[in-house]
Amino acid sequence: MESILVETHLSALRDRVSALEALAAVDRLILAGAQLEPVVDELFDRMPGVMRCEYTCIALPSVDRPGLWDLHLESHGAGGTGRVLLPRQSGAEVHRPRLGPVPAALRRAGAELVQAWPVTLDTRVVAILGVGFRDAIPADPSLGDTLESFAQRLSLALARSEREERLYRQAHFDALTGLPNRLLFRDRLTDELQQVREGGLGGALLYLDLDDFKQVNDTLGHPAGDQMLAIVGQRLRGCVKEHDTVARLGGDEFTVILRALPEPGAAQHVAQRIIDTLAAPMRLGSQSRRLGVSIGIAVFPDDAQESDDLIRMADAAMYRAKQQDPIRIAWHRSP
Q1: Omega into 118 within 30° of 0, i.e. cis?
Q2: Residue 107, CA distances (Å) to 47, 83, 126, 147, 222 in order
Q3: pTM for the full model?
Q4: Start and end residues for every CATH 3.30.70.270 domain found in the chain
Q5: Where in the chain is the domain with CATH 3.30.450.40?
Q6: pLDDT tens-digit profile of 242-277?
Q7: Reduced to 3 states, what is the DSSP secondary structure of residue 134?
């Protein structure tokens, strides 16, 4: 009897050491500044052995579908390990996080018994960890604490990811319109020109300047001017394709990078669409205003293959467009 008791204690001690080693491995990644994906991979590698489970699941907020979850689920058995990304699902309520999509997903995968733990950041549920068992949950009262410890690590990784995302947005996006700023615009233009040099389809750069915007600020005040700029940003995004870039350089200057144009003349149609869209009345407080815009166009790679040259050409064409009436579009060179 004594030997059985000793072996039981030794087994529990081995399990605890294994859990501490697994948590330490995750800690090292977090302290080293690893991105979220390697931390998630490490959790998937470590949790099955420590939790002695046949299924593991991590629900993360969908990047492109707010309010939905991306469910990453792994099953472990004689046939090996397989991970799948389940279709986006909803169902995690902040005040009842355990009733989110994870337990149901684990049961559909084949688990008879499940444990789930919410991953919180401040008061928000930012992820859900879950484990599933085919037969019975191991008789180890520390498993719940261990799952909570894994959840705490994931919370730290998500906090770092959110902070980095916030800092990135502050550095690369305009706070007023939500559009890429000058820095991100130049990065994207440089990348696009490089792709063209490597054989990709050419495109066009549109340089936009709003007409008489100063008058709006002077007569209606800066809050109305800010409101107009935000509306302009929304309308410009609606005028281009998803893979194109609309950016605000500052003040009332905007740019549009049109990618993979079938022929340079197609930029004329987009420019005219922008003029027509911005000409629709805008409600600014109690007043309605119409807005004009002057647009300069330079195409790549025909006009230039370097970003500074292309920007300079499109900017010069925009100033020529301001002198034209009623057509406020000018090319660096006719297409």
Answers
A1: no
A2: 18, 15, 22, 18, 56
A3: 0.73
A4: 182-331
A5: 2-170
A6: 999 999 999 999 999 999 998 888 999 999 999 999
A7: coil
Under DSSP, the state recorded for 136 is -
CATH of domain 182-331: 3.30.70.270
Q: Residues of the chain with pLDDT > 90: what percent?
A: 50
Say which residue, 334 or 96, is predicted with more confidence. Answer: 334
Residues 75-86 have pLDDT tens digits of 986 555 666 767
Q: Which amino acid is located at 213 in the chain? A: F
Residue 283 main-chain phi, psi, to 5 deg: -90, 115
Whether the CB-CB separation of 292 and 270 falls below 8 Å is answered with no
Whether 174 contacts 248, CB under 8 Å: yes
What is the token pair recorded at 293?
A: 């815009």
Residues 6+ apart with CB under 8 A from 321: 294, 295, 296, 328, 329, 330
Look at phi and psi of residue 33 and say left if phi exceeds 0, alpha if psi is from -120 to 50, else beta.
left
Separation CA 118–CA 329 (nearest Å): 55
Active site residues: 252
Which CATH number does 2-170 carry? 3.30.450.40
For the record, the structure tokens of 186 come out as: 């130049």
What does DSSP say about strands 292-300 and 329-331: parallel, antiparallel, or unpaired?
A: parallel
Burial class of residue 205, CB neighbours in 10 A (0-12, 13-18, 19+): buried
pLDDT digits (tens, 9 = 90+) for 269-324: 999 999 999 999 998 877 888 889 999 999 999 998 899 999 999 999 999 998 88
78's tokens: 């004689």
Give CA torsion, residues 154, 159, 163, 164, to 10 deg: -10
Residues whose CB is less than 8 angstroms from the CB of residue 77 and which lie 6 or more positions away in sequence, other chains included: 54
Token reading at 240: 């281009």
Rounded CA separation 253/185 (Å): 12
Q: For residue 244, how far is the Cα from the chain centroid?
A: 16
Q: What is the DSSP string of 310-333?
A: HHHHHHHHHHHHHT-SS--EEESS
Q: How many Cα atoms sit within 13 Å of 162 on the Cβ side?
A: 14
